[in-house]
Write a structure and sequence with these properties.
0% strand, mainly alpha, globular, 228 residues, disordered C terminus
């Protein structure tokens, strides 16, 4: 009687994949929990700023633009409540599935962080304006340069967060409002520290993404080289 060739069980491979995925997601979730205060502040500043933008647009008669800003603010307000951890988990899952395996465009992310430093320099000048007239004069003289840097940052982030998910959705929503809704000019006209604070937190988080991703990439490359 002919012997049949034993079938190689796929169970160990599936178990290994499951453990790798679980470890990545757990590590990512823990990283997000450590940044809890940053994310809460990010949500709070975004909500405050977009509410003020909504009111500013309404005062100019831009009801459509006001409603768009209000809708985003309302979504952020829900995120500030008990839904925050669910939203954080959703973003963490997005990162773990789409980006934690090194699927980052490191050059674009590094470029975005560098340009956000330039953007912070501009905003630092604006926040030092002592009156509405000084603020309006500064915006008139510097808006094109600030807009150019902000658009470049957003283009880079769109390339970085290119997979469908919450991270891509957030970046594309902001990019659309900046390009089509003149969001940046509205924020500059309000002249508060909210925008500066937002950019600072986003830059810090992007730097964390870059550090963790580049470290993973270096480790993977070292493992590859050691096998050669």
């Amino acid at each position: 009687m002919a012997k049949t060739k034993p079938q190689l069980s796929t169970a160990p491979l599936l178990l290994l994949l499951f453990l790798l995925l679980t470890t990545t997601i757990t590590t990512t979730a823990f990283s997000f929990s450590r940044s809890y205060s940053q994310y809460k502040t990010l949500f709070s500043l975004s909500h405050s700023l977009l509410t003020r933008v909504s009111n500013l647009r309404a005062s100019r008669g831009d009801i459509s633009g006001s409603n768009r800003a209000k809708l985003i603010a309302q979504k952020l307000e829900r995120g500030l409540g008990f839904g925050f951890w669910g939203l954080s988990w959703s973003v963490g899952w997005d990162y773990a599935i789409n980006y934690a395996w090194g699927h980052f465009d490191y050059r674009e992310l590094y470029g975005a962080v560098s340009e956000m430093n330039e953007l912070l320099r501009f905003l630092g000048e604006l926040t030092r304006s002592g009156s509405e007239i000084e603020r309006a004069t500064w915006v008139a003289g510097n808006y094109k340069n600030v807009l150019s840097v902000a658009q470049s940052v957003l283009r880079r982030l769109v390339k970085v967060f290119r997979q469908s998910g919450p991270l891509k959705e957030v970046v594309e929503t902001v990019q659309r409002e900046v390009v089509e809704g003149d969001l940046l000019r509205d924020c500059l006209e309000l002249g508060s520290n909210d925008l500066k604070g937002l950019v600072q937190i986003v830059k810090d988080l992007a730097s964390q993404f870059y550090s963790s991703s580049s470290s993973s990439s270096t480790a993977s490359q070292d493992d590859y080289n050691s096998d050669l």
